[in-house]
Amino acid sequence: MIKGLYEAHLPVSNIERSIEFYQKLGLKLAYKGKRVTFFWIEKGKSWLGLWECEETQIPYHPSIRHLAFYVDLDDIKKAKVWLEKRGINVKENFGFSQEQQPLVLANNPHTHAAIYFQDPDDNSLEFISPLELDSEEVFEMMELKDWYNQKERY
Fold this sequence. Notes:
Layout: E1 7-12, H1 15-24, E2 28-32, E3 36-42, E4 46-52, E5 66-70, H2 73-85, E6 103-107, E7 110-118, E8 124-132, E9 142-143, H3 144-151
Parallel strand pairs: 1-4, 5-8
Antiparallel strand pairs: 2-3, 3-4, 6-7, 6-9, 7-8
């Protein structure tokens, strides 16, 4: 029945500023309305809705102001430089500094590589890529380079 997630929504305070930011990420404008604007993540399969409103600074919690974009592992490795070239800073997360990212999320039995940043309204954004699914190995959170060293994949 369910094939994927079609849409997610975030609050923004200035739609024009947000359009510029999400275009820097490579998303394509799908629809621009008076109160909501949509960007294609994958045309016909998923999109992001941005709602201009006054209540953008509600307390952060990942269940309401967080969005993770799936990217290939090779892109995760280049993500920090790619973001910085667009004037977007990586943010500290889970106690890992900008310099320590990308990091490995250990949601055993699954591990993912991830890197975190924010949009102009401080909504939490993430690039994420699976490393191992259904693994019997147990991992702790660590820097991606340390995961490679541990896995002897250099």
